[in-house]
């Protein structure tokens, strides 16, 4: 009787293990190995066929025939093609975008162990550093919000109104992999960029040579803040913060980058993260224009070139995505050395 019970227990255990192994095998078969993940922050309407936001041009390039994959906790579905290029709209702002990305990264539907990440969106820029339609790769991501601020009249006249808060040193500044930034620039620096008559007319209001010039591909610090700061005063304060933190001058302002990079770093490291932003406005007004006028412009006074800018970003970014996928055997185990 004891042997019968023992053998029955063994058979039951073997059956459980067999069922478990079949379940694991099926789960592995359904797991998508991701080569490149593209994260955008918003789309204006549909994913195709209307006015494009940050996601539409990526969707039209890579996922026209893909089926949406719903992920619990994510702002929107994930899309993947047969080449292992996946992407999603993550939502605007640090909280929404980072929580959405974390849900995707923790989902068992995807294998991100060898993935490269491209964080993609629109941005503002100081007129001394970039112009409308430009596309800027990040070498540094900096959090604009982690610190102490006070009203100017409550401090020393002319002194900065910001002081870093201790305890955030590890999360307020993230340096991206210089080797990957170098690859990105080599692959994209000569990308033909679109421009528009409206953008040219708007740029002409600014005296700075860079602001008045045509769009270009460049590298610079991205400042991440949930606050849309405007005006030369806060722009100067942001440059003060950049110097305080020992990073390059800030080149663009955006709302998500450092938070998204932090989530990826916690789970997969930072070496394969890229951040790409296209400039759609200046973060301060032109001479004779008050900050409030710039923030809430009259009809006909807004910056042009939005449609061209979001197309430029996809033109630049796809060069890197396609190169990595095409040369996957060289890239899957790490960033290859670049031949000079």
TrEMBL record:
SUPFAM superfamilies: Purine and uridine phosphorylases. It holds the Pfam family NUP. InterPro entries: Nucleoside_phosphorylase_sf, Pur_nuclsid_perm. This is Purine nucleoside permease.
């Amino acid at each position: 009787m004891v042997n019968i019970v023992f053998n029955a227990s063994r058979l039951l255990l073997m059956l459980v293990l067999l069922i478990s192994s079949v379940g694991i095998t099926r789960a592995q078969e359904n797991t998508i190995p991701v080569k490149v993940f593209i994260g955008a922050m918003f789309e204006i309407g549909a994913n195709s066929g209307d006015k494009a936001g940050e996601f539409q041009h990526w969707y039209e390039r890579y996922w026209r025939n893909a089926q949406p994959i719903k992920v619990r906790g994510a702002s929107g579905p994930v899309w993947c093609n047969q080449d292992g290029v996946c992407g999603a709209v993550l939502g605007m702002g640090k909280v929404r975008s980072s929580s959405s990305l974390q849900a995707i990264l923790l989902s068992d539907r995807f294998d991100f162990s060898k993935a490269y990440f491209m964080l993609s969106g629109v941005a503002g820029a100081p007129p001394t550093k970039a112009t409308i339609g430009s596309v800027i790769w990040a070498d540094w991501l900096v959090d604009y919000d982690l610190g102490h601020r006070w009203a100017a009249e409550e401090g020393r006249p002319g002194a900065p109104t910001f002081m870093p808060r201790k305890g955030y040193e590890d999360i307020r500044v993230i340096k991206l992999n210089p080797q990957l930034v170098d690859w990105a620039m080599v692959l994209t620096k000569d990308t033909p960029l679109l421009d528009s008559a409206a953008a040219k007319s708007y740029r002409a209001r600014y005296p700075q040579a860079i602001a008045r010039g045509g769009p270009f591909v460049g590298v610079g610090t991205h400042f991440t803040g949930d606050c849309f700061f405007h005006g030369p005063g806060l722009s100067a304060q942001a440059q003060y913060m950049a110097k305080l933190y020992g990073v390059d001058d800030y080149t663009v302002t955006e709302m998500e980058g450092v938070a998204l990079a932090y989530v990826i770093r916690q789970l997969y490291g930072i070496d394969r993260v890229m951040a790409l932003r296209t400039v759609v406005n200046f973060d301060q007004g032109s001479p004779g224009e008050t900050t409030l006028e710039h923030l809430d412009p009259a009809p006909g006074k807004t910056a042009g070139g939005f449609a061209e800018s979001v197309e430029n970003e996809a033109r630049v970014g796809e060069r890197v995505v396609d190169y990595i996928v095409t040369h996957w055997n060289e890239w899957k185990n790490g960033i290859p050395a670049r031949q000079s």
